[in-house]
Amino acid sequence: MNRESFQPEGVAVPGAPYSPVVASGDLVVTAGQVGFDEQGRLVGDGIREQTRQTLVNLERCLAAAGCSLGDVVKVTTFIADLGDIEGYNEVYASVFESPYPARSTVQVGLPPGLLVEIEATARRG
To answer: How much is the mean pLDDT over the chain?
Structure first.
């Protein structure tokens, strides 16, 4: 199996052993992205700010592999509190267009301060 990994410009370099985005043929998969800026600092303390930055990072990951948000077929979202889903959906709907990708959203325990983590699967055209 051939696979390429990418370190997108503008996305913090992971400290753990994983790639931010991997492509194999026309399949592109991102690691979970969070609301960190390029230096690895958390952006904002609310769901809207963190979701915005997380989606910027996701878009940068996809671009590094030759994709865009329009190529995404599946999104998995890990959210610290489902009570924040309205703010999350507001930002999500401003970035993705209909027909929206398939999506799973799961409430989980994230590290302190992190409110959302998003990963995506896309197809390169």
So the answer is: 96
Question: CB within 8 A of 122, min separation 6: which ones?
Answer: 27, 28, 29, 30, 62, 65, 67, 71, 72, 73
Q: What is the pTM of this model?
A: 0.95
Instruction: With CA atoms as reference, report the closest residue to 75 among 55, 90, 49.
Output: 55
**Three-class secondary structure of residue 109 per DSSP:** coil
Class of residue 86 by CB neighbours under 10 A (exposed 0-12, middle 13-18, buried 19+): exposed
pLDDT category, 125, cuts 50, 70, 90? confident
On the 0-12 / 13-18 / 19+ scale of CB atoms within 10 A, 28 is buried
pLDDT tens-digit series, residues 97-116: 999 999 999 999 999 999 99
Q: Hey, what are 114's tokens?
A: 């992190």
12, 67 in Cβ contact below 8 A?
Answer: no
Residue 85, H or E segment = helix 85-95
Complete domains list, the chain, with CATH = 4-123 (3.30.1330.40)
